[in-house]
Amino acid sequence: MSDDVLLESRGPLGVVTLNRLKALNALSLEMCRALHPRLDAWAADPSVKAVVIRGAGGRAFCAGGDVRAVASSVGRTGAEASLAREFFRAEYALNHRIHHYPKPFIALVDGICMGGGLGLSMHGAFRVVTEKLVLAMPETAIGIFPDVGGGWFLPRFPGEAGTYLGLTGARCDAADAVWLGYATHQVESSRLEDLMAALGAADWSGAGRDVAAGVLAGFHQVPGPSGLAARAEVLSRCFGGQRVEDILAALEREGTAWAEETRATLLRMSPTSLRVTLRQLRQGRGQDYDATARMEYRLSQALTARHDFREGIRAVLVDKDQKPRWSPATLAEVTEAEVEACFAPRPGDELELPARG
Ligand code: QUE
Asked: Whose C-alpha lies nearest to ligand 1, atom 3?
């Protein structure tokens, strides 16, 4: 078996270590397929009281999904052609498993965490972040959309902060993450080993959630001021619209340097991604997580088949010229029918999720 994800039992803990250093621990299909059955086994094993997930290498928790592999499979034939389908099915099923996990699931997020990294952390009961956190949902830069449950968790962040993060891909630090409610605890990176030891040595005879919360509380430090929180009002003023054009116009009216930079950032993203993402976030506001996961699977298949995904991967991850040539190239050229088609049911290719409480 691959060493890209290490799975071990340490006393009362199941320990998952994402270990794909050359790709900042980006999540591959193989990693999903190794991890999911082990989470099932730990859920059923009475000696396992909690699961801890972390990233190896000191730089990243998880940089996202293995979108590079998915992009290079698009347009191929045979077994390779089905990677977009198999990868997103496996990733979303894993996110769903974590979302409904019956034991404390504790993510130690010490470094870069983007896209698929939020799928592995946000759905658990506890997210511990450190001073090294760099958190983002940057998918509109590669022609897709903030998936792995972004349609569920972004609209549940305060005010319009989630709309801002999902459309622009803006980076958050630890203080921002605590303010958002992404982080449940902030701990110094150098204390994570001690935290693991304390979880391993805890008396787990009480309710698991309370035991974990008690241990984590002993390590929590008070976060500093959040730059994102300081912008909460302007975000609510500018990002509440139903159309991307409304948001751009509101930013223009603000007339500040920050608003102008944010507007310029939006105009660099895939126009199709922006339109689809805004609709995804508005729809997700009134939907439960499972319904959102099914919606996102439809979107994943529709958007990875389009030009902008291959072009975004080329511009950001392959050639790194940061100059994607989007098609359609402008918001005005993205028709309502094109957006609508991305949300359409896919007979014979829907995401099936096991019923769980
Ligand atoms: C948007 C994304 C991703 C991204 C950059 C974006 C993403 C992802 C990676 C990534 C980064 C470094 C790696 C790697 C992948 O970058 O999902 O393999 O070494 O995984 O702008 O969604």
From this structure: 64
Q: What is the pLDDT of residue 60?
A: 98
Domain that holds residue 277: 5-343
315 in contact with ligand 1, CB cutoff 6 A: no
Q: Which of 173, 281, 150 is nearest to 228 (CA)?
A: 173
**Residues carrying an active site annotation:** 65, 116, 139, 147
Q: What is the pLDDT of residue 78?
A: 72
Cα 232 to Cα 280: distance, rounded to the nearest angstrom: 21
Q: Across the chain, what does the average pLDDT equal?
A: 97
CA–CA dist 316, 310 (Å, integer): 10
- Residue 189: CATH number of its domain: 3.90.226.10
**Site to substitute for ligand 1 among 120, 277, 317, most atoms within 8 A of C-beta:** 317
Does the C-beta of 91 come closer than 6 Å to ligand 1? no
Is residue 354 in some structural domain? no
* Total of domains in the chain: 1
